[in-house]
Task: inverse folding
C-alpha cells in the first residue's frame, strides 16, 4: 500500500507540472520561453562548474595508465608520419608532353612494389564425409 501511495503522489506532481507548463505556454509564451532558456543556461553553468572542478581531473588522468598509453600512441603516430612522409613522391609541374606520356604509362598495368610474404604449408588433408550422398 505504501508503494502505491508514493506512486500516486509522484504521478500527481508530474501531472500538475505538465498542467502548469501547458498553462504558461498558452497564457504567456514569451515568459515561458525565457524561463526555459534561463533554466537551461543555469543547468549548463552548474554542470560546467562541476565538470571543470571535479570530473575533469578524473576523466583525463585515470590511474596514470591512460596518460602513459596516450604518450606512447602519440609517439607512434609521429614516427609513422615521419616514415610515410619521406616515401611519398614529390609532385612537380609537368609540361603537356609529360602529361601525355604519363597518360599512356597509366594504361600499363603497374607492378606491385610490396609483394606479400606468403608461405605454403604442405600437409595431408583428411577427406571428410561426402554429405551429398545418404
Result:
Amino acid at each position: 500500500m505504501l508503494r502505491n501511495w508514493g506512486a500516486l503522489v509522484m504521478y500527481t506532481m508530474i501531472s500538475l507540472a505538465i498542467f502548469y507548463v501547458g498553462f504558461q505556454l498558452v497564457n504567456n509564451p514569451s515568459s515561458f520561453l525565457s524561463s526555459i532558456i534561463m533554466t537551461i543556461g543555469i543547468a549548463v553553468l552548474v554542470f560546467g562548474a562541476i565538470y571543470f572542478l571535479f570530473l575533469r581531473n578524473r576523466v583525463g588522468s585515470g590511474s596514470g595508465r591512460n596518460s602513459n598509453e596516450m604518450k606512447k600512441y602519440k609517439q607512434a603516430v609521429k614516427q609513422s608520419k615521419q616514415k610515410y612522409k619521406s616515401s611519398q613522391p614529390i609532385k612537380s609541374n609537368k609540361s603537356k608532353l609529360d602529361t601525355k606520356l604519363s597518360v599512356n604509362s597509366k594504361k600499363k598495368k603497374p607492378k606491385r612494389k610490396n609483394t606479400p610474404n606468403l608461405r605454403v604449408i604442405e600437409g595431408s588433408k583428411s577427406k571428410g564425409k561426402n554429405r551429398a550422398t545418404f
About this structure: The mean pLDDT is 76. The first helix runs from residue 2 to 27. Residues 2-86 form one domain. The two ends are 67 Å apart (CA to CA).
